[in-house]
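Translate sequence into structure tokens.
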Amino acid sequence: MRVLYPEGTVHEFLALRNAAGTVVSYGDLIQIPRDGAIESRMVFTLPDGSLFDERVTFTQRGVFSMRSYRLVQRGPSFPDDLDASLSGERRIRREGEGARRE
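Result follows.
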């Protein structure tokens, strides 16, 4: 995707809502320029203690290019614990009842 407006430092306060519009969790989105790239992290901690933690690092020299991605989901709100990452090589780990490992 072509970069029209380069990203920079961001700190957003997020509200996650269900289909009915009720807030189910609050979270943060933080982006920081570092080493010629943007490191972005979005985190939600749900009331039952579950965690959604997504991190992505990308460059934006003419086009957006992903360097790395990691998603961690764990706790009772998710069917299985998940730790997935993408970079030079793919790694996905799921844990819990009926879990598959790839």
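Note: The beta strands are 10-17, 23-34, 37-45, 51-61, 63-74, 81-86, 90-95.
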